[in-house]
Every structure is written in structure tokens, then in C-alpha cells.
Amino acid sequence: MFLMGKTATQIREEIITKKTTARAVVDSVLADIAARDSEYGAFLEVFTDRARAGADRIDALSQKEKEALSLCGVPVAIKDNMLYTGEIASAGSRMLENYRAPYTSTAVARLECDGAIIVGRTNMDEFAFGSSTENSAFQVTRNPWDLKKIPGGTSGGSAVAVAAGFVPLALGTDTGGSVRQPAAMCGIVGIRPTYGRVSRHGIVSDASSFDQVGVLATTVEDVALGLSVIEGKDVHDSTTEDLRSSVDREILRSGWKLPQDDTNSRPLRIGVPKEYFVEGMDKEVRARIEEAIFVLKENGVEIIELSIPATEYALPVYYILQPAEAASNLARYDGMRYGKRAEGGLDESYIAARSAGFGIESKRRIMMGSFILSAGYIDAFYKKALAVRKILCDQYDNAVKQVDVLLCATSPFVAWNIGEKFNDPIAMYLADVLTVTTSIVGAPGISVPCGLAHGLPVGLQFMGRRGDDMGVLKAAQLYTSLAPFTHKPVHGKST
């Protein structure tokens, strides 16, 4: 377990200074996955030959060329909905189980161009529908803190790949919380950037106005490193922007200046929306969040209670708009143009392909979305949800104008038992109650560990203004410096 405890930043430095080689790192990663991943189910496939070839190319570079690469020789895992030329990208679904990517997604290509080694694709909830990584058509992924527990979802495989020590960095996608929630439940760091900061080109679509590529790692600095590589405008994605405040790791290292550190600085202002202490929040989770607030306040941070009244409508708005967009995106998988093919006439093959290709949650979302968009209900549901989305955006913008960032729990409860909520979709959807707001408004959010509840990790979420990803990164960096998370999972053990 060569990588255990080492960050992406540290691995790059060891390769640059010739303490190790990219090939040695990759060989160690591949051996570790082969030895231990059967317990966790993080990976669907490992790119053994391709990863070794990539490592050899890195080792053949000149010293100057290596130093120019931000991720020189760093092993990275990618979620199964990210295209990587010639490799399967199934999105966790039987519908795409044999689909091989004809090109590489922009985010993955940017990683490779900056020296990263893509070692494999990770498990996920089918088409990114779910909060537990139980909806995969291929396997269930288990939480390294307790093998009986879910890791969160839908980027559960990527989160476990990092938390279990297989890789220091992984990519996921976050539609309603699918990077932040598994990061919280696995005790690592995960960021959903501002919508438009990272290209969605080459990502299998869930809900196009919500989807965003995010980064998972064990430290805020590594998350910032990964984001700095994949961000930026892309001609293949019209929603990307040249955002003014690019992620600058040097600025991140300087962090927020606390009053005791700099007499010229004003206190960091953090808003705490009262609506985010939701009914049903686990008492121990609430206690950890209150302790985090206390730590920040004791160190000179100004805590301001705010109100975002429309927050109570965020979850229903999301679960109207997301299924509607998902149903539209999944209409292409008809067994003719895309997806699993079945024999028979046109109608018969269409029905057979979609029946066999889609899992139960995908079918549920397609039915919900089709109903919402139907002639009799589009005005009653879809259009009203769009109107409430605008109200929520306005209220959120007004709140973040008063402070530097907002703070709340990432999830109202810790990881639950595998199977516990699988047949209760409403209970599963409630897991997203604290993450969907930033997804709806397109703002950045980051989850960092803030202690344990019931022996399992709790996530603290910082949210900011659209475009101010540096603001949430700096706030997260400040908190983690004041309250380092020193707990580690007992790998391979069940409590």
C-alpha cells in the first residue's frame, strides 16, 4: 500500500525529486487494487496496460518536462460516466455495458495532458440516479469505514477509491450532491464547482442544467489542484465560461487571514441559514456542525444567521426538474440509435431493450419525468418548479451577498446500512436535502470532514457565490487547518 496516506501533491513531488518513479507508483496502485478492492467494489475496471504505458511515458520525460506537469505521475480514478477513448463507459447501466468511448471527455483529457495516469473507472449509481451506489447494474460499493454501510452516491466508487487509499485523486459528477455526499460519508474532501467552470463534454448526461464534474481527494489542496487542471472554457461545451477567479493554489495556501494573524484583515463572515438545520437531522451530526461553528467563532470568524425561506422547496423543485431533464436525455437509448439492442419488431425491440437495459431507479425517473412533461401536467409541475427555482436563486444570491460563504451539514445523517433505504425512494431522496440548493442555483459547494457521529464521518459543507470557487476552497482550507480530521477507517473491517 505505497500510497496509503500520501496526497497527490506529495506523490508528484516524490516523482519530480526522483524518490520514486511513475511506473513504481502505478504498479503499487494496481497491485493494491487487485489485493483489496474485492472488499469494497470501488472499481468496475482497471486500465492495467494503459496505465503502465502512461507511467512509462512520464518517466521518459526530461526533468524540465516533468516539472511543468501539475499532476506528474499522479494516479487518478474516473467515474464510469466519463468517456475515455477505447474504454467502456457504461454509466453503471446494462444499457451501455458494451459501449466503448469514441473520444475522451474534456476533463479526463486535461488530466492526462497535465501528467495524470488514469488507472481505472469507478462504480456509480446507474446514470447517476441515487444516493448510495446501490443502483449500479454491476455491483454494490461498500464504505471503507464499515463494510455494511453505503458509501454515498452517485460517485460512491470514486469516493471509496480515495478513502480506501487506492488513489489520491478521483473525478466524480455532482448533479444533486453526488460528489459532496459520498465525500462526507467516506471522510474525504469533495467539491462541486460553479456550473460552467468545468466542461461536461464527454460526460454521459443525467440532467444537463445540473450536471457538473467534481473532484475528490483527502485534502483541500489536492481538490484545488485537480480543479485547477480540469477547469476552463471548452469549445465543445457552450455552458462553460471563462470565470474571472481561476483556482490558484498559491492563494489557497495563504488562506483567509484571521484577525490575530493580520491586524489589517476583517473577520471572515460565514452565513448559517437557519433552514439548513432540517427536521430529522441526526442529533450527533447536528452536534458536530455546532462544534465546527464554535471552532470557527473562537478563531475570529464572524458567524451570521441568515434565512433562505425558499429552501423548503429546494428538494421538490429538484425532484421535478431533474427527472424531467433525465427522461429527455434517456430517450435516446432506444436500442436502435444507442444502447442495448433487442430482437423483434420496432415496438417489441424498443420495449424489450429499455426493459432489460434500465434498472428500477432509471425506470422510476423516466416515468416521473415523462409524467411531469406530459401535456396535462407540464404547467402544474414543470413550469411552476422553474418559477420557484428562480425565486430560490434570487434568495440565495441575496444571502451570499451578505457574507463570504455559507455553512451547513453536507448530509443530515451519516452512512446507513446497505439495503436499508433501497426500496424507499423518498427516504433515499431526502439524503440530498442539504446539497440540492447549490445544484439548483449553479453555485460552488465543498464538503470537508468534521468529526464522527456513531463512529462514521460527518461532512461540513461550505457554499459560495457563483464563480467564487476560491472562496469556498479558502474557507474549507481554513476550517481543516483549525480542526484537522485525524480519524482513519480501519480498512477491511466491519463494525
Helix-strand layout with pairing:
Layout lengths: L7 H9 L5 H19 L2 E4 L1 H12 L3 H5 L7 E5 L26 H8 L3 E6 L33 H8 L5 E5 L6 H7 L2 E4 L20 E5 L2 H11 L18 H6 L14 E5 L9 H16 L3 E5 L7 H17 L15 H12 L2 H14 L4 H24 L3 E5 L15 H5 L6 H6 L3 E9 L2 E8 L5 H14 L13
Helix pairs in contact: 2-3, 11-13, 11-14
Structure, explained:
The structure is a single chain. With 495 residues, the chain is α/β, with parallel strands linked by helices. It has one domain: Amidase signature (AS) enzymes. 39% of the residues lie in helices and 12% in strands. It has helices at 8-16, 22-40, 48-59, 63-67, 106-113, 156-163, 180-186, 220-230, 249-254, 283-298, 314-330, 346-357, 360-373, 378-401, 425-429, 436-441, 469-482, and strands at 43-46, 75-79, 117-122, 169-173, 189-192, 213-217, 269-273, 302-306, 405-409, 445-453, 456-463. It has an eleven-stranded mixed sheet, sandwiched between helices.
